[in-house]
Amino acid sequence: MAEYLHQEIEKKWQAYWEKNQVFNAQVNPDKPKFYSLDMFPYPSGAGLHVGHPLGYIASDIITRYKRLQGFNVLHPMGYDSFGLPAEQYAIQTGQHPAITTDQNIKRYEEQLKNIGFAFDWAKEVRTSDPSYYKWTQWIFMQLFNSYYDKKADRAQAITSLIAHFENQGNTGVEAVCDEDTPSFTAEEWKNFSEQEQQGILLKYRLTFLAETTVNWCAALGTVLSNDEVKDGFSERGGHPVERKKMMQWSMRITAYAERLLQGLDALQWTEPIKEMQRNWIGKSIGAEMVFQVKGHDKQIKVFTTRIDTIYGVTYLALAPEHEFVTSLISEDQRATAEAYVEVAKNRSERDRMSDVKTISGAFTGSYAINPFNGEEIQIWIADYVLAGYGTGAVMAVPAHDERDYNFAKHFGLEIRQVIEGSMENGSFPGKGGIIINSDFLTGLDMKDAMTKAIEFLEERKIGKGKIQYRMRDAIFTRQRYWGEPLPVYFKDGLPYLIDEKDLPLVLPEVDKYLPTEDGEPPLGRAKDWVYQTSEGAFPLEKSTMPGWAGSSWYFFRYMDPENTEAFVNPEIEKYWGAVDLYIGGAEHATGHLLYSRFWTKFLFDRGYVSIEEPFQKMINQGMIQGRSNFVYRIKGNNTFVSHGLKDQHESVAMHVDVNIVHNDVLNLEKFKAWRPDLAQAEFILEDGKYICGAEVEKMSKSKYNVVNPDDIIERYGADTLRLYEMFLGPLEQFKPWNTNGIDGVSKFLKKLWKLYHHADGTFEVSEAAPSKEELKTLHKTIKKAQEDLENYSFNTSVASFMICVNELTAAKCNKRAILEPLAILVSPYAPHIAEELWMLLGHEQSIIHASFPEFKEEYLVENAHEYPVSINGKVRSKLSLSLALSKEEIEEVALADATVQKWLEGKAPKKVIVVPGKIINIVIG
């Protein structure tokens, strides 16, 4: 039999696909489109491990299936190639990040091509390529030149706002802007200096410069996002991070909060991801009010969703970063309070929100006045209050809020009930109920009390009803080198855009990739980093864009990557439209996905794209976890005891490279060669073997449990890897990688190959008509495969292929009418072997041009049934009879059967029970 040589076959077809540009997508109005997208990978130096391709394999299967269904498919790949890891490597080695990034991309691309993905490589993009980030800079410029019009509920050109200022000042302007934006007339606007006008416009622009509290990491010399900080230290390198105020560029994403919230309803995303976005946006309906500070001219602004509990307020809590903190600390509290603030403000917001067990705070020594009853209440500093949410101040009602309750109980503060209900188990949330102990609100239900309390605030002009969002404006700059330069220069301390004709503003060369000695970002090291205008040379912005800039719009560039006149041709964008299927990790739910939706809505508002939402359907693949192996070193020496004997010795578990372990048995010689310090290792074995311990963990180099797909492909083939990753379990679930189970998938492909070959090794397919059973096997598999593909249930499809091949093998089937559609069915999952079989079947074009087999129900309809014939309760015979027979006809045939006649011994039966399609039961008297 011709041997199934996976390496030769896979290299052959990968070369064919590339040479013939089989997967290149062009606009074709005569075909329905399908846009399939994988989340933008960052090309790390480590390359891919077997966990990374999981989502890519799933999307590849779907795109191949859609092509077989007649869709025009766009399935591109590119790289999110700016980032901190490449910059850190550059700092350590002096090598330009572009060189490192290019090497990493080549490695990634080689690995991706080896797995046989149907990517349109002609549309590859890289965020660090100047021809790409030219358009990232251009989009930034459009944001800078736009404001959000509340009346129109969309972004508009800043020129229309300027025209309004010139005619009416800002009277009648309903726009998203800074809270401290002053009112002015048209005359005043015209009399403002250029500097004053630009300062006013900056309060309206959708991207703006403002002092913001950030996570500053001195060791890395940059601002970090909340996701990059853990327990006050950077996730990369473990360096201390402090919260400090810095002048930063921000994007006014809050202007889109309501649209981002409402837009979720129409998306085919999983409910958990939608809920994560809803929680992040954090819409709250409530009231904003002010508390006068006793003995000060300051007023503390508070936002609350429970103004009905105002009479239950027993203290105010300020965020450690609140602007009034320093001035409110009294001398007798200064040492304690300032020490607390120093520690508390440097905890990341993520830690402060999630850590509900740690209760800490400090009394300022100052008091606020409750405007409803004139009562004096203590002002505390507490890190459970966040500066960026609401006003950074909380009116604490311990009786009806768990965190307030825990804080008050810890510090011995008053807990006053103002809602009817049991208080036996601590705070009573009181999501409904009658108000008590609350003066003119007493006796009202919660809703009516809120309405009346807001009326009280507004009548006295000390507050108002308000909708608040937890989401904050997105910080848009990083003090790094390896990122997109901002197309901005500064004149008189204010930002101006460079001319569009000067895009892209390309990263300059620098002598080091570190901040300057006086603390400026790395671009401060560039020579002549200035912008030349007719008025002279002005300094350019030294910070760069964050990692999410380029990944917020890449799905548009894939459509038209060579365009030098626009970021995408409008007609091409209109054809491809929104991404039909987006596969990626759930960890991007509140970062990339929100920013992409924000930028798409903005581009839609300004008329640059035809869609408001970028990703219609999204699936979050689970993680393939590593299966770690352990050896057990006896304390004090270099002897290792096998797993089953470890409890007899005092030993320490140690991770061992899984690539020198097979079926949990350690290769002793490879272990000794693994590390120099293990060369003289000794072993205590069990049954002549060293058995390792095992545990499922995250796949990582530090745990020595990383499996390289290249090794799997070399040994078993890419088709085996693809099938096995799908066979491991449902796409969305987390599942452990265990190479021990891959042999079964490999054997399946060899068995599939054998179906098309004679025993002597020659290719042989019969033109004979298939049997009823063979057609039943095929159509049962077509039905299952199509249902699974429509439901993204890839693991069960693989199982159905195995059953199909087993049944056809048992039937010795080699009929073209069966094997040709079978090759098509398998091709999305195992494309290389399918292409080879398709060619052997006599086809000149790629199998991708075939049509998905049509399922025919008629082949699954049973025409006959094998009846068990019981005599006095025991099965004595079996009869295959047509299902069209009546009960009387079935009885007649059964009684005439030779076996039944033998048992009757010439007597008439006492009773005959016939259940059509089920059983025949004969009772002999």
Characterize the structure shown:
32% of the residues lie in helices and 19% in strands. The protein contains 28 helices and 35 strands. The strands form 10 sheets. Strands 10, 11, 12, 13, 14, 15 and 16 form a 7-stranded mixed beta sheet that branches. Strands 24, 25, 26, 29, 30 and 31 form a 6-stranded mixed beta sheet that branches. Helix 1 (6-19) crosses helix 26 (831-840) and helix 20 (709-715) packs across helix 21 (718-727). The longest helix has 20 residues, at 772-791. It starts with 5 loop residues before the first helix and ends with a strand. The model has no long low-confidence stretch (mean pLDDT 93).
Shape: globular
List low-confidence stretches: none
Oligomeric state, counting identical vs distinct chains: single chain
Main sheet summary: 7 strands, mixed
What is the CA-based Rg, rounded? 35 Å
- Counted by DSSP, the helix tally is 28
What level of helicity do the residues show? 25-40%
- What is the typical, i.e. mean, pLDDT? 93
Tally of DSSP β-strands? 35
Name the beta content range. 15-25%
Class from helix and strand fractions: alpha+beta
- Terminal Cα separation, in Å? 60 Å
Provide a quick synopsis of the model.
The protein is α+β, with helices and mostly antiparallel strands. It is built from 28 helices and 35 strands.
